[in-house]
Amino acid sequence: MTLIVEVVIMSGAVLVYAIASMGFVVALMFGKKQARLAGIASACAGLVLHAVAILGRWVRVGHGPAVGFYEVASLLGFLTVAFFLPLLWRQRGLWVVGVGVMPLAFLLLGGAMLAGKEAQGIEGSLVSYWLGIHVAFANLAYGAYAASFALAIAFLLREKGSTRFATVLAKLPDQLVIDGLMFKFVGAGFLFQGIMIVSGAIWANEAWGRYWAWDPMETWSLIAWMIYAGYLHVRLTLGWSGSRAAWIAVFSLPVIVFTLLGVPNVYKTIHGAYLQR
Amino acid sequence: MRSPRLVAWLIAGIGVYIVLATLVPHGSATEPKVAAWAVRHPVAERYVASLGLHRPYTNPVFLLLVVLLEASTIVCAWERTVSAARGSRAVGVVTPELLARLREADGRILLPAGKSREEAADAAERVLRRFRMRVRRGPVLLEADSFRFAAFGSPAFHWALAAILALIMAGQLTRAEGKIGIRVGEASRETHASYGHVEEGPLFLERHTGLDLAVSDLDSEHRAGGHDRGPSPFVSLLREGRVLRRQWVYPNNPLRLGRLFVHYDDYGLSPAVTVLAPDGSVVATGAFFADFANMRQDGLVPVEVTLAQGASDELFLRLAIRLDPGEKPGSFIRAMPSGQAVDLSCRLGTSPTFTAPARLEPGRDVVLSSGLRVRYDGTRYYARLVVVDDWSIPYLYVAFAGACIATVFTLILPPRTVWVLAEESPERRLLVRVRAGRSDPAFRGLVARRLAEAVGSGPDGEVPS
């Protein structure tokens, strides 16, 4: 697949994600079933297009989406939808979560499209099997946290007892189920992020001779991990659940997004060379 | 130390401290970036300085928080271990306390008329098996559990966390890390004096290995496994001339021997000189390290050194190696120049000025006013290696792996236990007790619903914890 074909397919995915976002918003605002179905169908179509473009690029450049802002942000957008759709498959009532998830995926992929798309070679310290492990778990963690964020939004919307969306919110699964799912996704994200940090530390030790150097990226990963550790701690030991836990999940996701995409643009970091290009 | 709230505050405190630390430049107060920041933010600087945020991770405030978290984690891990062990011993044992709890509890399901106790117990067993639980049926009580071993996940995670923190602290106190430059074809003994720069933990106590580190080759464009690995030295570790280990060293491929890790850091040029007396005897020798990073705009890589040639006098040398020009105008090739000539100027300790630079080929010399001759012996590559002496790293990896595995057990595989007692009383009730973690809030209600459906009744009370 050439770069031009890839860009065309990616642009198609951006467009379809935008349609999906509008579909979910219209469905929520006006209670239109057709809009909801259009949203779901567009999200599926966008995910397929996105997957094709990612795989095509993978084959062309010879490595997975792990280097440069374009690849990283695009993959985060892909995973946002890839975590959302299976969740929707299991809990149909959770379609309302798409109101938050699809615009997020649209913004991530749209942002990625603004960055340089030239193939970046894997060389020097990047030549390591730890690259795949580290990046894969970073993305899995992000996907799981994004799902917990979306569930937290759904939980809080219903908790607030919005009369405007009462019909839609009534179709959501039981609050206990949403709360449990939210916890499970935070737990999975915490585990994935832990593995990401550990694999990064081992890799850094192999590549540079130190496992931890308080590089801004490392530091912010630790901060994000500690925030989610706090979530799990207050939930498991102090019994916090429901709204309080949901608010923590809502406020934690921006920290993760900032860690993955913002830190290289704000701080001088050794990771910047891999994520900023 | 036992308070969960204290732990929450400690996690929050460490998190906030780290976030604040990311907002300011790090280093000593005299460093330009730190000093400039202090001038720009005089009010904030007072608080930043008092919290030690310019050197945050060695500051007593931060270390105190970490030590408190460590102590709290150990206490927590111990309590969780005792609790899990107690729970594990209680499985399969029908105690009067358990029966009393079941009878006192309000988690009960009324049995419909015509449903015998046996039938109710059969139905309950089927339901619990569908939850993939292991069911034990006694004469009085039906007990089911799943992922019982996972009850030890949380204590194991906390022990692993405590071990990680302890290992990091112990490692920092007892490790050494230094940079050592070695000319190609030469060796250097791993001792304190050999390092250009070395940081030793307060409890390292100069326990250097005394092994010889030799660099026999340096490939400026090394390829391995089909990938360009960049400049790579071939490094050997020797004890009394016997090679213990040797390999090409490049990123992701350090040389390891026990607690010693040898990493590649950089490479440069190393010119060597010999100082000869008028009678031809060798007065002093020296090999010097010139870094490409110091290259001037005219392509000269300078290096300035001092040679102690006797008790009373010193000899100052300035050498400059001229790099070959690159393809673009004004660019130079960062590699061994094709001709190895250097510009050399000298100054004896007693003289106020340097001699005019003399262009020397390898083997040629300059004669000083004192009759001393400085001979240029040629230039080779040198490799700068980072040598880390840290016993804690493999143990840290084990603790990391333990923490990850324990997290899986804690968060993904929740331990569950259900006791069901079909009571022989006038009310004909199925008494249910469920024990599941807070990570599993929906399980209690789900069990109650499924059991009620299975026996053809409805729960008349909430299933207790």
Explain what you see.
The complex is a heterodimer of chains A (277) and B (465). Chain A has helices at 3-30, 33-61, 69-90, 98-113, 129-160, 166-170, 175-208, 216-236, 242-266, 272-275. Chain A is mainly α. Chain A has two domains: 1-121, Four Helix Bundle (Hemerythrin (Met), subunit A) (Up-down Bundle); 124-277, no CATH class. In chain A, helix 7 (175-208) runs parallel beside helix 9 (242-266) and helix 8 packs antiparallel against helix 9. Helix content of chain B is 32%, strand content 33%. In chain B, the strands form four sheets. In chain B, strands 4, 6, 10, 11, 12, 13, 18 and 19 form an eight-stranded antiparallel β-sheet that branches. In chain B, strands 1-21-20-3-2 form a five-stranded antiparallel β-sheet, with helices on both faces. In chain B, strands 5-7-8-9 form a four-stranded antiparallel β-sheet, with no helix packed on it. In chain B, strand 2 (134-137) and strand 3 (142-146) form a beta hairpin.
Mean pLDDT of chain A comes to: 86
Strand-residue proportion of chain A: under 5%
The helix/strand order of chain A is HHHHHHHHHH
Helix content of chain B: 25-40%
Report the biggest beta sheet of chain A as strand number plus sense, adding barrel if it closes.
none
**H and E string of chain B:** HHHHHEHEEHEEEEEEEEEEEEEEEEHEEH
Shape of chain B: elongated
Radius of gyration of chain A, in Å, reads: 19 Å
Distance between termini of chain A? Answer: 21 Å
> What is the total tally of β strands of chain B?
21
DSSP helix fraction of chain A: over 70%
Please, how many helices of chain B?
Answer: 9
Number of helices of chain A: 10
What structural keywords apply?
heterodimer, A: 277 residues, mainly alpha, Four Helix Bundle (Hemerythrin (Met), subunit A), 0% strand, B: 465 residues, 5-stranded antiparallel β-sheet, 9 helices, 33% strand, elongated, disordered C terminus
